[in-house]
Amino acid sequence: xxGKKTVRAAERALDILLCFTRKRELxxxxxxxxxxxxxxxxxxxLATLEDKGFLVRDSETDKYQLGFRVWExxxxxxxxxxxxxxxxxxxxxxxxxxxxxxxLYFRDGFERIxxxxxxxxxxxxxxAPLGARMPLAVGAxxxxxxxxxxxxxxxxxxxxxxxxxxxxxxxxxxxxxxxRDQGYATSVEEREAGTSAVSVPVLGRDRRMIxxxxxxxxxxxxxxxxxxxxxxxxxxxxxxxxxxxxx
Amino acid sequence: xxGKKTVRAAERALDILLCFTRKRELxxxxxxxxxxxxxxxxxxxLATLEDKGFLVRDSETDKYQLGFRVWExxxxxxxxxxxxxxxxxxxxxxxxxxxxxxxLYFRDGFERIxxxxxxxxxxxxxxAPLGARMPLAVGAxxxxxxxxxxxxxxxxxxxxxxxxxxxxxxxxxxxxxxxRDQGYATSVEEREAGTSAVSVPVLGRDRRMIxxxxxxxxxxxxxxxxxxxxxxxxxxxxxxxxxxxxx
DNA sequence: AACTTGGTTTCGATAGGTGAAACAGCTATT
DNA sequence: AATAGCTGTTTCACCTATCGAAACCAAGTT
Lengths: 247, 247
Description:
Chains A, B: Residues 69-247 form the IclR-ED domain. Chains A, B: This is Glycerol operon regulatory protein. With 247 residues, chain A is of the alpha+beta class. Chain A has ten helices and eight strands. In chain A, a hairpin with a 6-residue loop joins strand 1 (55-57) and strand 2 (64-66). Chain A starts with 7 loop residues before the first helix and ends with a helix. Chain A binds a DNA duplex (30 and 30 nucleotides) through helix 3.
């Protein structure tokens, strides 16, 4: 599939690191189970990761968790212009007016990734783990991220062989046009049972999309009417975000 | 040195990742130079890192930079109880009252690492890159981090063979006692010419130290007298932080 | 046209990573 | 006390996947 020549040992080490996006604390055996690798292989790789400071182990439980080095790398990632931090205040403000969970998504290849979220304060609410990756085929934000991508990107995405066959591409394509027209997308129990969502693109200067901002919640509360009602609220937020991103 | 059996390929991959803490954008040849590895080795490892999403390459310059996966990992690092975020408001408050740069340091092995910083708003100020690593032998925060470590940790640190010979251990040990007595440490042009700093430990519940909070600035402005003056300010901040950390 | 400078590919030799299995240390169960 | 069961750790012989030199391209420079 991937033509590139890669290094297996390194690949495995990175896979192990990524296990920690699913669970904060992991023991050696848990990791061997998750990765399907041999126990001693994992053992050696864990030793390397620990040695380099990417993992630390809790002195009591002996379980591993992500170490300082991750933090260090993060600190050198984007930073000042990091929308995940930059937009946070605006997202909180939106959350307070609509009283539902607000999420910010980026597109990364054929997936979207939740880079920031502030949760509704209501008892019944959508919980949204950061860093979660989801397919581009379903969900309001996915459709926004595809609809406002450049034509070339769009072609690439729709040509993706891993696209689920359950999603009718023609119908999807028509939806995209509609979304471009009205400037927002909605979804009702599309990706996740019991939740619906509205999403709006966040455009940078030169009109290129940088992210999708979404409000999501339980279907009972977030009806179609309610969503249409709050679209202007979201747009206010995104337009302010766009001003921030422009400077 | 390190008795543990580690995996070389993985080690190298991680080394390459860490190069990006020094420079945000790197090309293949730059990395080969920095690491001293063979060009094709680096090439393959970069392919692996890119494949796994830890690096992305800029379509124009062809240079690599850290990718989303780093963000994803970070998002799953501590988080809720992450002092780097938790203490930020308190640090800003302190910055506003003392009008100097405020930094938060953790100890990691035989180094300290700047995990958070808010900069003085004055024109002349200490700039403080996040994630920077510094030796434990010099600097106000280093001394705090050593002085308030557990006896066992302290022994380990002082026994570190890489300890610079220029630092007199006996004198250092006496300083530590003094610091424990008075509850804070100062330094004048110790690690960095032209800057001085005051530092105070942030203790968690059960009195164990979790970090060192420091105020630093140019020697002209941050005189000994001035530092003694602001010690109570810092302590107010740390005591509030301690309450936050306790819950 | 010869010479850089950067990324990419090939290929044979062998370092070194791999996995099975044994070991050790601990707790729960009999 | 003996047993079983679950960790993490270490050993070792095999052989594959990794490595580095060198060749190869493709763009710029001189």
